[in-house]
Predict the structure.
Amino acid sequence: MAHEYGITKPKGYNVTFHYNPNMERHHFGQTHPMKPWRLTLTKSLVTSYGMNFAMDNYTARTATYEELTNFHTNDYVDFLATVAPQPTPLDVDNMHPDLKFNLGGSDCPLFEGLYDYCSMSAGSSLDAARKICSKQADIAIAWGGGLHHAKKSEASGFCYINDIVLAILQLLRVYPRVLYIDIDVHHGDGVEEAFLSTDRVMTVSFHKYDPNTFFPGTGALDDNGPRSEHNPGAHHALNVPLNDGITDEQYKWLFESVISRCVEKFRPSAIALQCGADSLAGDRLGKFNLLVEGHSSCVEFCKKLGIPMIMFGGGGYTPRNVARAWAYETAVAINQHKNIPTQIPEHTPWRERFRHETLLPTIEQILGEPRQNRNPQKKLQDIVQHITEQLRFVSH
Ligand code: ZL4
Ligand code: CA
Ligand code: ZN
């Protein structure tokens, strides 16, 4: 079928898109920032641009109990599978103070269908990983994944099951080394922690860092994991702590400086990229000044490395911003971002939700006035220097 934007499948290059339409039906609570519905909005943009014609589209299956317990403990997954939903409304900050595994608080509420939601998120990321392992995909996209805070035996920060850890464990069956990159505004602590003792995974998170006021409070520049001489994973956890207001230009420079050095030293055979969209300007939780241009330039840079890659979703609390970014990044993956019109197609469902009719609004359109930039250039240079020093210990 021909499409109005003429988007067709490229030869010799394959992108797979893993999506489960039932994920978006779940609700964390009326005023909870995490809105699974943003996935619907993303999918509707992707489809209205005709990007689906350039990819293999898969309805993601749910992950099995056995798959979830590849990382998580049986007692935690058992509890997730059987715990009763909290009485509605979930919008009160009381919750059950005696609940186990950090479940049932205001960040990680127990909602109807929670276990299903978790297994769908993990299922889409695992499907994506398997397409990369079987070489059926050069890039596999799982916007329903990216839940980087979940721990082996604990929910944390809106995350219950760490689909990224599960996906990386799959990649490690085939690929000797995996580079994990995290551009969510929060520190990717769960993924970092899971791989602290191996030199087969290097983790790099860019995030806002303020141990006193910003979740989860970890991820300082010199937090590079346990440095004992018996730990092969020493120096393989890298952190880029930032302040509010960072701009596209600074972020792009920092990202390319850091990641090119990591790739040179670590020589990854696969990349896992968490594309959390809460690092965009105008996010409900994040306070950076990034536009879709800056955020997606990270995806573009990684794609150009020519290394097999999974792209995950993650945070993102202003649904229209999330949808614009992830749709544009889907276009980057299929190399159509320069070809699609920035005007949002007339026939896009919920078109009026995007507020501006463009895929690439300016900072003024989004924020009125940009946030004050609290990132002096000197600080950014010190970061690159510290990371260069850490990488002296790494060679493959
Ligand atoms: C909310 O309005 O900083 C949860 C969470 C629920 C509904 C009404 C309850 C009101 C903001 C956040 C009380 C909410 C109090 N509702 C929340 C230390 C905190 C304890 C909980 O993008 N209170 C915890 C987690 C972070 C904390 C960020 C990012 C995930 C990811 C990947 C996770 N937790 C202080 C906050 C609201 C809520 C409004 C909220 N929670 C904002 N930041 C947090 O990295 C997906
Ligand atoms: Ca991050
Ligand atoms: Zn986040």
